[in-house]
């Protein structure tokens, strides 16, 4: 790739009069030796998986194997239809869709890691709801995925996209930054404005720890995806309104690395600190262990018939 | 650059809930199945560390089972892999390993099918990426990111030169290779990670080289 920072990416766009999506698609084709139309087709397939996950999360059964989560997306969608959300319909819809995809993930449905499975709801939540709202063609959203991918590429290589390495800020935080920047470009904002949106969004996620109850990608991951979609829309609006990130986005990414590196291991996807270590978090973990033992025992008993049978 | 292209950020397409505990586990199962070379009938899976602690909620057991059936990471049959395994005549025994193994997310798999037997130790190291530490008792490493050939042979002068010479003549570039032997002049294994998958005829020719006992192709880059 020709860029390592968002600053360099925006400069290339300005110099060549291209969008972030165009630069990413070109560079991807060059880097991997795969023709641009094939690269585009693969991303288009991914977008269909995202749309299908939204649909499944709103209509199907999303009860997770642990039984801890499922069905929240439907609750939000139903509430939204009553027409009195505090948030307003577009944001509430993005929130419902993001919850839907994360619930599909938790219930072993098919998703696209964006950038990870734990943060897979935010980008589809923002993209699919905006597509419905503005009547955009699929191809426009596919281009948006290249914008999001370029931003994620810079974050991943300069900081992290792994909760085990850098906490939830690296997963959900990165996804919010990617969605915010992409949304700016989708709405016709400049590459520079898109980069500001990344900075604005990520500033609001710094320090977020990864503390899943029982180590599962459920509590609080799903809710953080829902709320993350709303933050992404808000950051995009701020940037489109002309608000800049005074601390440049690349420097914010540097802070994410600094904070992530200093984070104790109990707050980095071990299920040993934060919400996982609360009295309720511990109780749920204990109950799951007991449930697992019981099921394992049942399975053993049904598999081994009494020895006196022929 | 740790992340090399856009699909390492947007992607993979996978069945949830966890890229490390689910998608990575599917890939580990697939490597083991391809190492055996056919559908296993019996499997013993020993889970270590976080795999052993959280396998139930993450569906790591189903994911490994799916991989042993040669399913891809986004196969929607993964949640019912236990039922599919029964249909395929594969029984799996789950064993709780002691300690962490070579990595907090690791598994040791032993597979049987008729006279055939295979064994491997591997870990899921994040984002669906895996690391294999041992194949059939040989300490050789591979990632599953590339078309890979595992060659069992006798430890003998010139064997590696013959193997690399053949690949070179066929225009196949070696990205990484690893060798381990049980002892001097005893059984050995050489693993090649390749930039492109060689034609089946190349593998056949390889199997006919002197001192070669077995040639196995492991390729997760092809959809199952």
UniProtKB/TrEMBL annotation, chain A:
Enzyme kind, highest EC tier: lyase
InterPro entries documented for this protein: Fe-S_L-Ser, Ser_deHydtase-like_asu, Ser_deHydtase_asu
UniProt keyword annotations, A-Z: 4Fe-4S, Gluconeogenesis, Iron, Iron-sulfur, Lyase, Metal-binding
EC number(s) on file: 4.3.1.17
Domain Serine dehydratase-like alpha subunit per the UniProt entry, residue ranges: 16-276
Region Disordered, residue ranges: 264-310
Cofactor: [4Fe-4S] cluster
Pathway assigned in UniProt: Carbohydrate biosynthesis; gluconeogenesis
Domain of life: Bacteria
Catalytic activity as recorded in UniProt: L-serine = pyruvate + NH4(+)
Family the entry assigns: Belongs to the iron-sulfur dependent L-serine dehydratase family.
Protein name as it appears in the record: L-serine dehydratase
Organism in which the protein naturally occurs: Paenibacillus cookii
Automatic annotation (TrEMBL), chain B:
SUPFAM superfamilies in alphabetical order: ACT-like, Serine metabolism enzymes domain
Protein origin, superkingdom: Bacteria
Domain named ACT: residues: 148-223
Catalytic activity entry: L-serine = pyruvate + NH4(+)
Cofactor section: [4Fe-4S] cluster
PROSITE patterns per the UniProt record, alphabetical: ACT (PS51671)
Pathway(s): Carbohydrate biosynthesis; gluconeogenesis
Gene3D superfamilies xref list: 3.30.70.260, D-3-phosphoglycerate dehydrogenase, domain 3 (3.30.1330.90)
UniProt KW keywords: 4Fe-4S, Gluconeogenesis, Iron, Iron-sulfur, Lyase, Metal-binding
UniProt record similarity statement: Belongs to the iron-sulfur dependent L-serine dehydratase family.
Name of the protein described by the UniProt record: L-serine deaminase
């Amino acid at each position: 790739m020709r860029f390592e920072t968002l600053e360099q990416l925006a400069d290339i766009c300005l110099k060549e009069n291209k969008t972030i999506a165009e630069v990413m698609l070109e560079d991807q084709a060059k880097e991997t030796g795969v023709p641009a139309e094939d690269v585009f087709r693969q991303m288009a397939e991914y977008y269909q998986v995202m749309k299908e996950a939204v649909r499944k999360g709103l209509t199907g059964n999303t009860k997770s194997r642990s039984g801890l989560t499922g069905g929240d997306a439907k609750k939000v969608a139903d509430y939204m239809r009553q027409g009195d959300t505090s948030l307003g319909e577009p944001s509430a819809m993005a929130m419902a869709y993001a919850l839907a995809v994360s619930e599909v993930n938790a219930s072993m449905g098919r998703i696209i890691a964006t950038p990870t499975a734990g943060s897979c709801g935010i980008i589809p939540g923002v993209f699919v709801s905006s597509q419905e709202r503005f009547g955009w063609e699929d191809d426009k959203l596919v281009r948006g995925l290249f914008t999001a991918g370029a931003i994620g590429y810079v974050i991943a290589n300069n900081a992290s996209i792994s909760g085990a390495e850098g906490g939830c800020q690296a997963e959900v935080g990165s996804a919010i930054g990617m969605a915010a920047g992409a949304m700016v470009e989708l709405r016709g904002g400049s590459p520079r404005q898109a980069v500001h949106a990344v900075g604005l969004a990520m500033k609001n996620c710094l320090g977020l720890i990864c503390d899943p109850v029982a180590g599962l990608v459920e509590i609080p991951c799903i809710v953080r995806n829902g709320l993350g979609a709303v933050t992404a829309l808000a950051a995009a609006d701020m940037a489109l309104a002309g608000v800049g990130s005074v601390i440049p986005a690349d420097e914010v990414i540097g802070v994410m690395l600094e904070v992530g590196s200093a984070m104790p291991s109990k707050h980095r996807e071990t299920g040993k600190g934060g919400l996982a270590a609360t009295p309720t978090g511990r109780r749920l973990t204990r109950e799951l262990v007991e449930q697992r033992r019981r099921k394992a025992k049942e399975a053993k008993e049904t598999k081994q018939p009494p020895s006196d049978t022929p | 650059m740790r992340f090399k292209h856009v699909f390492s950020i947007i992607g993979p397409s996978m069945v949830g809930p966890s890229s490390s505990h689910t998608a990575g586990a599917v890939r580990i199962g697939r490597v083991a199945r391809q190492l055996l070379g056919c559908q296993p009938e019996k499997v013993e899976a020993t889970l270590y560390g976080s795999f052993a602690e959280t396998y139930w909620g993450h569906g790591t057991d189903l994911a490994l089972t799916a991989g042993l059936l040669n399913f891809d990471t986004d196969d929607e049959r993964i949640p019912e892999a236990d039922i599919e395994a029964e249909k395929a005549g594969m029984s799996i025994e789950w064993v709780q390993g002691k300690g962490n193994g070579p990595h907090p997310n690791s598994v040791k798999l032993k597979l049987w099918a008729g006279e055939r037997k295979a064994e491997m130790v591997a870990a899921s190291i994040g984002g669906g990426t895996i690391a294999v530490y041992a194949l059939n008792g040989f300490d050789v490493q591979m990632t599953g990111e590339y078309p890979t050939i595992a060659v069992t042979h006798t430890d003998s002068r010139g064997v590696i030169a013959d193997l690399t010479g053949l690949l070179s003549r066929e225009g196949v570039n070696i990205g990484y290779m690893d060798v381990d032997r049980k002892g001097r002049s005893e059984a050995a294994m050489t693993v090649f990670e390749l930039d492109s998958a060689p034609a089946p005829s190349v593998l056949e020719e390889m199997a006919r080289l002197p001192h070669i006992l077995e040639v196995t192709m492991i390729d997760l880059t092809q959809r199952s």
